[in-house]
Amino acid sequence: MKYGFIIDNRKCIGCHACTTACKSEHDVPVGVNRTYVKQVEKGEFPHTRRIFSVMRCNHCSDAPCVEICPVEALYTREDGIVDFDNNRCIGCKSCMQACPYDALYIDPDNKTAAKCNYCAHRVEVGRAPACVDVCPEHALIAGDMDNAETEISMLLAREQVMVRKPEKGTQPNLFYIDGDYQSLDPDEPSKSGPGLWNSQARGVGHYAKAAEKMMHTNDDINLLQMSIDNELQAAYQKKDSENPNYIDVLNGKARRVYDTPDKGILWGWEVAAYVTTKAIAAGAFLIPFIVLLLGYDVSSQTKLLAVGISLLALGLTGLFLVMDLDRPDRFLNVLLRPQWNSWLVKGGYTITIFGLLMTVWGAVTFFEWQVPENILLWVTAIFGVILAIYTAFLFAQAKGRDFWQSPTLPLHMLVHSVMAGAAVFSVIALFIENESWMALLGNVISIALVVNLMTLVSELTITHPTKAAKKVVTMILKERYQGLFWGGTIIVGNLLPLILVQFMPGEYTLAAAGILILIGIYVTEKIWVEAPQRIPLA
Question: Which domains are assigned to the chain?
Answer without folding.
Answer: 3-58+118-258 (3.30.70.20), 269-534 (1.20.1630.10)
